[in-house]
Amino acid sequence: MDSPPTKTFEVKRRRLKFLGLTVDDAIKFFFGGNAVVSVVVLGLITYFLFREGAGFLGQNHQNLLIYRRAGLEFVDLIRAEETAHTALDRYLSDLRQRQYDYLVRQQGKPPAEANAALVAYDEFAGRFDDAGGPMRTLVSDLSELASGVKTKYMVLEDKGVERSQLLAEGRTGDARAVKIEEVDFAAELKPMLAVLPDFRDANARFAKDLEAVLAAAPSMPSPELQVRLERFKRLTHVFIGTFPEIEREAEAWDYRRPVPWWEAFTSFMFGREWITASFWQDWYGVIPLLVGSCMVSFVALVIAVPLGVGAAIYVNQIATPAEQRFIKPCIEFISAFPSVVLGFFGIAVLGEALRWVSHLGWLSWMPGFPMSERLNILTAGCLLALIAVPTIFTLAEDALNNVPRAFNEASLALGATHLQTLAKIIVPASLSGIISAILLGFGRVIGETMVVLLCAGNRIAIPDFTSGLGVFTQPVHTMTGLIAQEMGEVVRGGIHYRALFMVGMLLFFLSLLINYVAQGILRRYRISIG
Predict the structure, then answer these.
(1) Which residue from 106, 240, 292, 416 puts its CA 20 to 30 A from 517's CA?
(2) Using an 8 Å Cβ cutoff, are 276 and 288 in contact?
(3) Cβ proximity of 218 and 126 under 8 Å
(4) d(CA 99, CA 422)
């Protein structure tokens, strides 16, 4: 007599047979369905990202077109001089602080006496700053004119949207009452273009005043500071040398010149500014975010790769069974920590600890020390390393496990030591799998959100690479952090909204590429082992 489990199986087999399926077919269908679901989900994600982000290029092209038509581009050509002059002013401020520190710390002068000794320098710096006064006034006047033209255009655009909405609602009479006029850009820009002769005259006076100020530069209290002053003079002469080129660009500028469609894409992919809700001009350049994401991920991998790979080699090849039972769960348990908890830990503990350590006098030789801000690339990278270690450890150990035992036995039989076998046979044989583990760890950290949002500093700017390794103590923003921070504050369907989806598309395809490369390396590794 058949037992109950046997009867149950027989009933199910008969039902499957009635449906035209065998048991094997049902099992294949069930497990094969996972792959179908994965493909469908991947397709839906791709479709959703493209659907929401597709309108960005058209909106950004219109954004760039208005930037040119309203004269903002013309003003920014002239504003470049003011910006460069302001940067030179900051150089002088830094030089003044260095002189003060030298007089107080090196020569032991009281603060009051040190400030009195810097009176001549302060007058020199003041005259240098005053030389840019006429240019700042000119830029301010032009900015008001250009802002007025842009505002007028935007108001008319809003009226056009209002009319379209009224027509969609069937309120034809109200729609006709909305008056829309075309902006006469030629007439609006005429007062701005009329300042070109004044701009040339202002540049001539500006150059003459700067040369006079440099001729009266005071001497520095030390040779090192004198070298810095001479560098400042060279930079100022280079700055003066740019005046003719800026004048030529301003004279050749034409608001009617078309904006190519490809600039809407290149301004996003290679733009160096991400500025939103600006009264002047919004820019959507992803380079600062991409650089921030890559730098934080680089710090994480520098820490995580030695720890993860080293732990995998030790646990798999050297550790005793008792050590394996203890170490493996501890490392894998790290992945159970919510990333937001690690972020809180970074803000409250790790960031403060790193900043305290950086202010220790005997560590002042290290680049970037002392750190001025506790939330930066280093803090976020250290926490991301904790997230990456379990991934790298698990996959690297799997790669070591897949090395045929015959390799190890043959090496030992030839008289090699265990360490020699490990270094020259086991690790090289599993190198492709280890590289795949590292790439998947990179894909894991570059897609992390909460840790970088809480601990990276959220400054949207390309770090100052002139500071050397100290660049890793500067705050940055990342692609994932920006999306999480700004998505809840944007208007659905607006250019800012679609720009965030463009960032998501870039991040999605970047992660997809990393995983594709990693899986390709892993397949090649398995074939070579097989």
Answers:
(1) 292
(2) no
(3) no
(4) 58
Average pLDDT estimate for 425-432: 87
- Tell me, yes or no, whether 282 lies in a domain: no
Structure tokens at 258: 């078309």
Write down the pLDDT at residue 360: 86
SS3 256: coil
Q: Are strands 283-284 and 274-275 parallel, antiparallel or unpaired?
A: antiparallel
Residue 461 belongs to a domain with what CATH number?
Answer: 1.10.3720.10
DSSP-derived 3-state class of residue 171: coil
Report how far residue 116's alpha carbon sits from residue 521's, in angstroms, rounded to the nearest whole number.
67
Residue tagged 């003044």 (tokens): 96
Is residue 439 within 8 Å of residue 517, measured between CB atoms?
yes
d(CA 254, CA 69): 9
Instruction: Read off the pLDDT of residues 105-129 as tens digits, 9 standing for 90 and up.
Output: 888 889 999 999 999 999 999 999 9
Q: Which tokens belong to 419?
A: 């360490």
Q: Are residues 167 and 48 in the same domain?
A: no
Report the length, in residues, of the chain: 530
Distance between CA 392 and CA 305 in Å, rounded? Answer: 7
Instruction: Please name the residue that has the structure tokens 């001025």.
Output: 372
Assign residue 2 a region: left if phi > 0, alpha if psi is -120 to 50, beta otherwise? beta
Q: Cβ(189)–Cβ(152) under 8 Å?
A: no
Q: Is residue 82 situated within a structural domain?
A: yes
The total number of structural domains that make up the chain: 3
Do both 100 and 233 map to the same domain? yes
Is there a contact between 419 and 337 (Cβ–Cβ < 8 Å)? no
CB 274 within 8 Å of CB 284: yes
Structural domain for 87, as ranges: 65-260
The percentage of the chain sitting over the pLDDT mark of 70, rounded to a whole number, equals 88
Tell me: do 132 and 20 sit in the same domain. Answer: no
- DSSP code at position 285: -
Tokens of 280: 């002047």
By CB atoms closer than 10 A (0-12, 13-18, 19+), residue 127 is: middle
**359 and 220 inside one domain:** no
Give the pLDDT band (50/70/90) at residue 1.
very low
Residues 211 and 298 in one domain: no
What is residue 488's DSSP assignment?
G
Coil, strand or helix at 284: strand
Radius of gyration (Cα) for the chain, nearest Å?
Answer: 32
**Is residue 59 in a domain?**
no
Q: Work out the pLDDT band at 289, boundaries 50, 70, 90.
A: very high
- Structure tokens, 490: 């944007």
What letter represents residue 289's amino acid? L
Domain identity same for 43 and 109? no
